[in-house]
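Lab manual, section 2.4: Encoding a predicted structure.

Procedure: take the sequence of the chain (133 residues), apply the prediction step described in section 2.3, and record the output as structure tokens. A sample record is shown.
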Amino acid sequence: MIDVLIIDKSSQIEQGLSAGDIASELFDDEVKALNSLEQRKPMLILLHYAVRKEQTADYIRLIIRANPKNKVVVLADELSEKDVLSCLLAGAQGYQQLSDFDRYARRLVTVMAAGEVWITRKMTAILLESLRS
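Recorded output:
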């Protein structure tokens, strides 16, 4: 069973996770979600960017501080490369466009459970270049 915590004020992400071996819990309040992370140890956290918008990177840092083993994937309608990079540098291990989530949800969770990241090759190159600078 793969344990997933969803932080989303809509039900878009939860609808994409209709699988038998995924246990998910939805939080529409980011403070309650953060408090839950201190007691619960989910394998994966799916965070809708719209919850915190420009403050998402700071919120990711709080999630990672609560438990450095937390794996965060940011989902959004569409983010600029700069915003995705900001989230990755804050500790997120993936980004997925929300419009394609239904198609990739199962694979995303499987890949993350295997210890991999969920970013494009282009974002990997941008991330590496940013780390070199």
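Check your result against the sample. The helical segments are 12-16, 30-39, 56-66, 81-90, 101-113, 121-132.
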